[in-house]
Amino acid sequence: MRGGNRGTNQSSRFGMDYEANSMYEGIAEELGGTVGQQVDWFRWQDYYVDANYTSVVDDIYDTSSGVSGQGRRWMLPFKLPTVMAQLIRSSNVMNERGFYVTDTLRLVVNVGDIQRLIPEMMSNPSSHIKDRILYMGEIYTPTRVLPRGSFGMRWAVVTIDCNQVNPEELVDDPQFQRYAEPATVDRRSSVVTLKSLAVTNYALVPSFNPTITSYTLAVGSTESKVLLTPVAASGMENIIMIDGTLVKTGLTASVPLMGTTTITNIVVSTDNSPASQTYKVTITKGA
User: Fold this and answer.
1) Domain boundaries, given as residue ranges, for the chain
2) Under a CB-based contact definition with an 8 Å cutoff, are residues 191 and 270 in contact?
3) d(CA 132, CA 40)
4) Rg (alpha carbons) of the chain, rounded to whole number
5) How much helix, strand and coil, in percent to the nearest 5, is found in the chain?
6) Fold observed for domain 194-285
7) How many Å apart are CA 191 and CA 270, to the nearest integer?
8) Structure confidence at residue 5 (pLDDT)
């Protein structure tokens, strides 16, 4: 009994018992090789900025005096791995720049990656309010940093909430101008093409090209079906129908062969545009 007490006192001396220490090490190890999204993180540094711009006339909109190439500059980005990157649409209804709606990007990052790449964030979160983040073609700025998941008196992850920079603000920005879009542009996809179309064990003629809509396919005389795998250019936003049957992008569909020649129509559309594109494949059985 006395020996047991001695062991308990010793574990308390180190501030953490064996179970808690093992739990933290296990979690840290699992989060060390995260499989979530990556974001491009642009650091704001005064010494870099002073050497790379002149005549900035607006503290909010990052515009210059109108001279091409002049304006604020951020350092080249590094890749920040995340445990999770959550995009929350239309969640910012007003901020200091005016009245409009923008998106929120919520990042969950392993604390080890924060300590490795941007260690000062843990001691002074507000130091990164001028940084910029690129994710899925949109620009964000970090606004709130919250350490979470305490194990053994140490944090496991950090949650970073980021506000989208309104695309209109980027029109005169020399570094991020390519991400500027008119407010009237619908950000949802209206692209109605395939990225690729594969045939199991056979090849299309000509080779697939998104701009070519008519193909031929020669198969063996004993074939009763062919397997087609369409991939939409706009991912899950596109709707793919093969001969009237819905097919998910990237999945293989079986097309039955009727007689010597079978004509298969693959129609690509999207739910926010009346446009559509039809790809025709003429399948012929050989001798």
Assistant:
1) 2-179, 194-285
2) yes
3) 8
4) 27
5) 20, 40, 40
6) Immunoglobulin-like (2.60.40)
7) 8
8) 43
